[in-house]
Specification:
- GO terms for molecular function: L-threonine 3-dehydrogenase activity; zinc ion binding.
- Zn(2+) 2 binds at residues 93, 96, 99, 107.
- The protein is of the alpha/beta class.
- It folds into 2 domains: 2-146 and 308-339, Quinone Oxidoreductase, Chain A, domain 1; 152-285, Rossmann fold, CATH 3.40.50.720.
- It contains 12 helices and 18 strands.
- Helix 5 crosses helix 6.
- It is globular and about 60 Å long.
Length: 342
């Protein structure tokens, strides 16, 4: 089969012929239809310090995907051939304290598809049936392919109650925009979003945010009057990894405000702890998706009318992977997906 492979410890990927994966008794084989490019994939393709420290070549990359089940292991009873599926990219041990308590997203021994294990940028992928999410309601392969990042957004946005709240999202990348959309759908009164990219701010505006702020020209407080806010933001969703964005967010929260942080910074961040203490702010780190409560919430949000298809702005065939990665790396658009359909 064809697959995108990190063949050596260095920049670049290669579209190569590799053996089809084998299927164990508890695994399923999925014919991949669509895949999404994630920031993690950009790190691996570019081979930065993070990639060099976490990835061992050769490796099939990619973890955002949708497809159709074509084979199931002999012990699999809850997934069937023909099911339209997405996959949870974190494989957990099942034996650590958090796994045994039902908190699998906190597994201390987590391994990642496309990072430690062969991934989804291929014609076929085999994964444990326990990591498969079956789409029981009709859903397009393109939207199903971005359930992984959609889950990051849902996990972050629904960490704190949203009904009637004023929300600030810093970072208008695809996941930030998805988080803003989820916040509005969950009942937020206002949702402001900030970024440095004008095209991404325009996309966020088209997809329903209350106000989009160019962070080079505006502070979050500049939105108060336009949104009719008398105090600061109730909920903050930090999606950018920017030290400036987090500091600005802390300074614009109401007393008792709550901040969920998904964005990964490249280094340490200095913050005003006195403001956190005196204003009694809550700051919570978010990683991945709750398995599988977040997945249930994603499906219900779509069934209740949330349309996330607009966040997908660029589509390529997998043979055009170099163009696809360059587009994703530009930081000017929304989600980039690649087709593997024959």
């Amino acid at each position: 089969m064809k697959a995108l492979v990190k063949t050596t410890a260095g920049p670049g990927l290669e579209l190569a012929d590799v053996p089809e994966p084998t299927v164990g008794p508890t695994d399923v084989l999925i014919e991949v239809k669509q895949t999404g490019i994630c920031g993690t994939d950009l790190h691996i393709e570019g081979w930065d310090d993070w990639a060099a420290g976490h990835v061992t070549a050769p490796l099939i990359v990619g973890h955002e995907f949708s497809g159709v089940v074509v084979q199931v292991g002999q012990s699999v009873t809850d997934v069937a051939v023909g099911d339209v599926v997405s996959g949870e990219g974190h494989l957990v041990c099942g034996r650590c304290r958090n796994c045994r308590a039902g908190r699998r997203h906190l597994c201390i021994n987590t391994r990642g598809i496309g990072v430690q294990l062969d991934g989804a940028f291929a014609e076929y992928i085999a994964i444990p049936s326990s990591n498969v999410w079956v789409h029981t309601n009709p859903i397009g392969f393109d939207v199903a392919a971005i359930f992984d990042p959609f889950g990051n957004a849902v996990h972050t946005a629904l960490t704190f109650p949203m009904l009637g709240e004023d929300v600030l999202v810093t970072g208008a990348g695809p996941i930030g925009i998805l988080a803003a959309m989820v916040s509005r759908h969950a009942g937020a009164r206002n949702v402001a979003i900030s970024d440095l990219s004008e095209p991404r701010l325009e996309l966020a505006s088209r997809l329903g945010v209350s106000v989009a702020l160019d962070a080079r020209q505006h502070k979050p407080q500049d939105a108060y009057a336009e949104l009719g806010m008398l105090e600061g933001f109730d909920v903050g969703l930090e999606m950018s990894g920017s030290p400036v964005a987090l500091r600005d967010m802390i300074g614009s929260m109401t007393h008792g405000g709550r901040i969920a942080v998904l964005g990964l910074p490249s280094g340490e961040i200095n913050i005003d702890v006195a403001t956190v203490v005196l204003n009694m702010l809550t700051i919570k780190g978010i990683y991945g998706r709750e398995m599988f409560e977040t997945w249930y919430a994603m499906s219900v949000l779509l069934q209740s009318g949330l349309d996330i298809s607009g966040v997908i702005t660029d589509r390529f065939d997998h043979t055009e992977f170099e163009k696809a990665f360059a587009t994703a790396r530009s930081g000017h658009g929304g989600k980039v997906i690649m087709s593997w359909e024959k």
